[in-house]
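FAQ: What does the model actually see?

It sees only this:
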Amino acid sequence: MMQSAAGIHWCAAQEREGTGMMDRMWDTRYAAEGYLFGTAPAAFLTRAAGDLAPGSALAVADGEGRNSVFLAERGLKVTAFDASPVAVAKAQALAMDRGVAVDHRMAAVEDWDWSIPHDNVVAIFIQFAPPPLRDAIFAGMTRALKPGGILMLHGYRPAQLAYGTGGPRQSDNLYTKDLLQDAFADLEILRLDAYDAEVSEGSGHAGMSALIDLIARKPA
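And it is asked to produce this:
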């Protein structure tokens, strides 16, 4: 069962400790030279760009900024956040290099204020979250959409564990069609595709991968 948007605020000490350890792990990964997932946007986002609504966009757990910068290059007013200060610094540098403005924030997903409305919410490869936190994130993303707004979600399916070419090693963190249909039942699902494809997005996502795409609209 999905948690309410208010449920994004976790209070258990062990859960806080767990997310803190995850944040430090990402700092270490992002500290390497270059961009872990490259500077080009996710292939999914370039394919789906025609479905974006005009106006504003929120890039969830945006990492080093490749997707938020792409959204800004398309003329959207973009807010992006990530829990890693190392990643946010790289994202800011990428936006400056590309000559676009992005409102980069440093925040963990469990602390983000989902009450601020956006025309688009984009979440790409954010599968660090176990089911309880994932449910809260999904509820928050739905809440953050304006009526008529577009949600874009891209990630891995359980078959990705056999490929081992990126993503989490916990099967519970992966997406299925049934899971996403249930999680976003209040939205109009425009596209829900499960497929295997070769991915070449930096050293972090490289090789044949089991992918899933969701594009949905919040009823007006």
